[in-house]
Amino acid sequence: MAELAVVSLSGGLDSCVAAAMARAEGFDLALLHADYGQLTEARERRAFQDIADFHAVPEQRRLVISFENLRMIGGSALTDASIPLPEGDLHRQGVPVSYVPFRNAHLLATAVSWAEVLMASHIFVGFVEEDSSGYPDCREAFLKSFEATANLGTKPETHLKLHAPLIHLKKAQIVAKGLALNAPLHLSWSCYQGQAEACGHCDSCLLRLRGFQEAGSADPIPYAFIPDNLRV
Predict the structure, then answer these.
(1) DSSP three-state, residue 6
(2) Rounded Cα–Cα distance for residues 107 and 134 (Å)
(3) What is the DSSP string of 175-225?
(4) Is the pLDDT of residue 133 over 80?
(5) What is the pLDDT of residue 1?
(6) How far apart are CA 142 and CA 138, in angstroms?
(7) Would the pTM of this model clear 0.90, i.e. be above it?
(8) Region 87-107: what's the mean pLDDT?
(9) Domains in the chain, CATH or no CATH each
């Protein structure tokens, strides 16, 4: 039997490719998805289930966790309807309003708890530091610090390795990696506000579209709008 890895799978492009990379390395997958009150949670959950089906992950190794506390805390345009989501800007500096305060710490803590119960020693995440929206909890330094904390706070026989195989890749490189691995990119969903079609306006859509364009491939998901400068 193959070794088990817990993968944090939002259903987006990056986590979709991270899951495919874990599979390519020979791991069996246990997939974790978080509902934190985001605007497109229903569509993201569908993407999560579709990707899990693609990899034939059994139901007992699919875990959907509600982080209702993050919605109640607010502070993000993704969880608080009173904070408008601005038009995407690939040149914007600083931490954007789409940042959900310390969200990835909650995700990692849950992944660690589940990994310990499953006796899995590996956790994969789709964090991207080089070509992302500027989220501070996607940085390699944060991930390494959390790995040390997790190993301090778990049983002596628990030895966890946190993997972020995309962390220093550009979005075009992530797309290329996904295509090379035959990852189900057509099943993934990245848009912050559209559910029937991706909006083509938010930061996440623009980063994704630019990645596909630079990789020389058309994005296989439907868009309500694609900027002329990002068409393939």
Answers:
(1) strand
(2) 18
(3) HHHHHHTT--GGG----SS-SSSB-S-SHHHHHHHHHHHHTT----S-BS-
(4) no
(5) 75
(6) 7
(7) yes
(8) 93
(9) 4-230 (3.40.50.620)
